[in-house]
């Protein structure tokens, strides 16, 4: 940081500390220990009282801040009465600690009600991360928080000198229907199948205002004034404005659980905004009224800086953007709205507050308008601009294996599921890692064969599954099969989107890989044809990421190196899509599993309970590349 | 049954079958196998849509019907996504199968999400039973159903000849707030502590009508007519009547999930009504308009028949009553209302329908009025009349141990708890049965001492805990300690009620014992003084039960023989009271545990996971009587 110190004397001590921290002390790696109680809490994230899963009595969970190279140790006690829990550290690679990845059925047994488990893992590099539940739909129930890893002298960030201070925004969406009911709907058969619909509220750092975008005013007079003009000019009879006119304004005062977040900044500086999205469903767009944003980080990786008026962010992604406080000292709207699906949810609002502006001068003018939800071209323009910053590792040229994954929405035994190559993921009761550890793959899941690594190319991605020619449409199956990946293999994954069940509809899916970053080699429309398209892939400066978007009726190609033995989920980060089976499992380097010190208590459940007493089976034979 | 056959020819075959069954065939004991999927379902038990825990897609769960001497085998698959489950077979003694008692933390590990467990147990005697979840508050979430064990020639019922047919009513109550929020409120500290309040609806066989006791009419005209007269005479401005006037009537037609139950009967017969209550909170009163009831069974035990106009039934209890269809052929209200707490819930209504009455002639006249909720004298009169039928086993005269249990509502670290001798039960993560089986009591729970078997007699039960003299008030503690009971011991338990936190308030608690029936030796007001009161106890014909009521500011004495090795809960059957710690644990005959064939998978969780690989520890030393 160039100069974190403003003119105010009161900040002096903090500034000294910050400067010491940023420039003069190379902090020695430490183990940072936390004790968390996970429990039900009554909370009003959007001013509507609801039960949520909280940590240490609060929502969202505590922000973890660490330095690159530190070890994080979180002792989690499960005080939920009947639910197991796990916590996934999104974006952390878990090098050598695959049992700490926090994925139920995959890396770990759920922490039992009344039990506890200590996650201990290295945060190997700086970046903007977060954590969340990864069991059932507990993320959507509120089990999440921020995880910020600061750069160090040993692992500096190339844009460190470009900013003076930072703020963090964890974005999410919130449903008034509880996740048990959401799951009941998604599990329903035939006419009982029920989609979750759009969220009621968008949240910024866990705060939103349901049914009242006027919540950010301080008093009724200001509210009434705003009703009259800024938000909704007289004569605007849109549903949104009618709703605003009907709505009550308060009391969304500061201090309540749903008062809007205000980020204080000083004029004439540059700020880093860390923005991460852990939405259940919504793709979001973030704007700061009157300010440009320069993107510098994506998913903990450095990107070639580029300037935009707004960013799109999909569930599972994170960005850092730099913002110059170069406008008239005042306060400005930060607006977060829905893209990619027809929005039924009001944009979330926060405030960028210049500290020397009048304390109760609230933002004026109209809130920034979210770009049209269905302007996919605009979304692609943003996404396609993201390139690795110079100095980023380049992908290996030689590829050992290519897996093509057709993304479809399928009918299956009266249910609606998402499927990859016509297989919908059905997770086992015994975590895969435990199954391999104890050598009981045969009883723990279907280990008779691997997941299919391509689909019948006569499948027409422009048509719904129901309209396919019979020979193109393999029968949909539910399976817990895995992809076995040999240690060290270089793997290309082609994500191939297709039409959903409804004609003319293809959805956006943000795919997230555990245990790895991957290079995003390219995107395209229509069907990926290797002979035609592989030459166009970007191997010069492809960005490294852990989450990547798959656009409607298009394809995305990514590459990763299987250098981290473990069982890793790769899945659509939309919670109800994963619930409906939209994911696959990579069992990577299982022949090296015995070299790891897997704690038995992490993997002893399901079928492993009856074999835990037995000596371990011989190590797994090497898998094909 | 004397004559199960009515005059109608269509019933002939059924009648022949029934007669064969009842009189001519001594059914050989069989194993009755069931497969259950436990899952979330969207249901409308009181016409309001809600998520519930269902079995095989329905609420309530399927009725199990068996013959005395049969073995029930239920393979339960847990399809809840994050919750474990257990199922308790209420009133079944689990002779030799203590791991099948279905109590989480006590007899068994929760069945994991995605896992399954087969409960297999003997139903050793005829009677009216039920089953329900016994983990967290899953009973209140809808996880329950009926379990009817028919008499056989080998195990006849003394009143078999007195009735012609039977119907079954499982009573429950229903909250619109989900159990996770209920638990969050009960777990809350200081001002965040929140009592669950009164239920929104009472259910009969899983059906009720929220906010509209007119739901039982078939059409709007009849509804409007009823609004005018029968229910609420003009001029009655009571809140109840105002609510009825505001309410909508339909469409509560037959076939919807919330239409009222109609029990068809033929005139001039006698019917056995099996009535069981699995309410979360409410004590209930059951009446049948214009009909008397003769009580013949309580909790699967025969009682000396006595005639009443209505019965009180507490959560955890069951009764059989005989009803003569000696009224004018018509249809009659069955009304179930709240007693013991100031009711805020409309009575539930069902219909006793004489089959030869006009099919759409609905009951006329005012529904039977529930006796005043606070008329405790009337409640006691009913309860005190219950005596064992001649021929019932009498209790042993020699008592090995007497445990006195003071029931208080206590403040504890900012929470409100229920406590026994100032100890509030806090269940461990490792089930006790597993802890004893693996010999890891020391790590699994506080085995350093036993639960206290009495309280300081200077405690004034007429005063709140806060008003006690300091020397009378032991500090409240939370503990998972047990009572160790030697095999074969004869144990007397004195339940001593006291004042709650609010001055002048003492609540009704129905106490339920697992693994046993007990003799109810007596009740009294005030403090039980052994020297003064023991001589008045009834050892001549005390009724056998598994649940017994403790009246406000009074005492109840019961006796049981510790003839069934296992770890058994003894607790208030009010779900939120148990949640707040109102129970104790009897670890009975643990020195005989190794003679039982405890399935490892039933008890391998919590601390047992890390020792499951080890050989079993030496058997437990005999415990003192």
From TrEMBL, chains A, B:
It is found in: Secreted. Its EC number is 1.10.3.3. One of its GO terms (molecular function) is oxidoreductase activity. Its main location: secreted. Belongs to the multicopper oxidase family. It catalyses: 4 L-ascorbate + O2 = 4 monodehydro-L-ascorbate radical + 2 H2O. This is L-ascorbate oxidase. NCBIfam families: ascorbase (TIGR03388). Residues 1-27 form the signal peptide. Residues 38-152, 168-356, 471-589 form the Plastocyanin-like domain. It holds the Pfam family Cu-oxidase_3. Its cofactor is Cu cation. It is an enzyme of class 1 (oxidoreductase). InterPro entries: Cu-oxidase-like_N, Cu-oxidase_2nd, Cu-oxidase_C, Cu-oxidase_fam, Cu_oxidase_Cu_BS, Cupredoxin, CuRO_3_AAO, L-ascorbate_oxidase_pln. One of its GO terms (cellular component) is extracellular region. Dimer. The lineage of its organism: Eukaryota, Viridiplantae, Streptophyta, Embryophyta, Tracheophyta. The keyword Magnesium does not apply. Keywords: Copper, Disulfide bond, Metal-binding, Oxidoreductase, Repeat, Secreted, Signal. PROSITE patterns: MULTICOPPER_OXIDASE2.
């Amino acid at each position: 940081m160039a100069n974190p110190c403003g003119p105010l004397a009161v900040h002096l001590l903090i500034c000294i500390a910050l400067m010491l921290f940023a420039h003069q002390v190379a902090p020695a790696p430490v183990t940072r220990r936390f004790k968390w109680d996970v429990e039900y809490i009554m909370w009003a994230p959007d001013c509507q009282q609801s039960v949520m899963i909280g940590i240490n009595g609060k929502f969202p969970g505590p922000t973890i801040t660490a330095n690159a190279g530190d070890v994080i140790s979180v002792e989690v006690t499960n005080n939920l009465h009947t639910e197991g829990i796990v916590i996934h550290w999104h974006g952390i690679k878990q090098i050598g600690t695959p049992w700490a990845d926090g994925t139920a059925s995959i890396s770990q047994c759920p922490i039992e009600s009344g039990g506890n488990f200590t996650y201990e893992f290295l945060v190997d590099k700086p970046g903007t991360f977060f954590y969340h539940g990864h069991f059932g739909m507990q993320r959507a129930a509120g089990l999440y928080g921020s995880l910020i890893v600061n750069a160090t002298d040993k692992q500096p960030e190339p844009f460190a000198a470009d900013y003076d201070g930072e703020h963090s925004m964890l974005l999410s969406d919130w449903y008034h229907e509880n996740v048990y009911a959401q799951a009941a709907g998604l599990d329903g058969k035939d006419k009982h199948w029920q989609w979750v619909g759009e969220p009621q509220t968008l949240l910024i750092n866990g705060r939103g205002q349901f049914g009242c975008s006027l919540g950010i005013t301080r008093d009724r007079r200001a509210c009434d004034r705003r009703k009259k003009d800024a938000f909704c000019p007289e004569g605007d009879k849109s549903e949104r404005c009618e709703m605003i006119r009907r709505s009550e304004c308060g009391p969304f005062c500061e201090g309540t659980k749903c008062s809007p977040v205000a980020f204080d900044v000083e004029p004439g500086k540059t700020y880093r905004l860390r923005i991460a999205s852990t939405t259940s469903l919504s793709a979001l767009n973030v704007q700061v009224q009157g300010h440009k944003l320069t993107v510098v980080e994506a998913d903990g990786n450095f990107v070639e800086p580029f300037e935009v008026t707004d960013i799109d962010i999909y569930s599972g992604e994170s960005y850092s953007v730099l913002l110059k406080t170069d406008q008239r000292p005042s306060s400005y709207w930060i607006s977060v709205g829905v893209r990619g699906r027809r929005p039924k949810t009001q944009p979330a609002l926060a405030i960028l507050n210049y500290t020397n502006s009048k304390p109760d001068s609230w933002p004026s003018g109209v809130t920034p308008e979210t770009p049209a939800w269905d302007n996919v071209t605009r979304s692609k323009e943003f996404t396609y601009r993201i390139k690795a910053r110079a100095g980023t590792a380049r992908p290996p040229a030689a590829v050992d294996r290519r897996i093509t994954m057709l993304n479809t929405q399928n009918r299956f035994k009266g249910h609606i599921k998402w499927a990859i190559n016509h297989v919908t993921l059905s997770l086992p009761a015994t975590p895969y890692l435990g199954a391999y550890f104890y050598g009981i793959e045969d009883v723990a899941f279907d280990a008779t064969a691997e997941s299919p690594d391509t689909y019948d190319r006569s499948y027409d991605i422009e048509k719904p599954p129901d309209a396919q020619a019979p020979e193109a449409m393999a029968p949909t199956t539910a399976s817990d099969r895995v992809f076995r990946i040999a240690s060290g293999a270089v793997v290309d994954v082609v994500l191939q989107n297709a039409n959903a069940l409804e004609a003319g509809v293809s959805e956006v899916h943000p795919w997230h890989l555990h245990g790895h970053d991957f290079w995003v080699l390219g995107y395209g429309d229509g069907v990926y044809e290797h002979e035609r398209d592989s030459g166009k892939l970007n191997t010069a400066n492809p960005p490294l990421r852990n989450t990547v978007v798959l656009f409607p009726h298009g394809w995305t190609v990514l590459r990763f190196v299987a250098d981290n033995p473990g069982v890793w989920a790769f899945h659509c980060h939309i919670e109800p899509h994963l619930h409906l089976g939209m994911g696959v499992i990579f069992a990577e380097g299982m022949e090296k599993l015995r070299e790891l010190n897997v704690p038995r208590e992490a993997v002893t459940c399901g079928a492993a309970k009856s074999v835990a007493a037995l000596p371990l089976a011989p190590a797994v034979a090497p898998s094909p590349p």
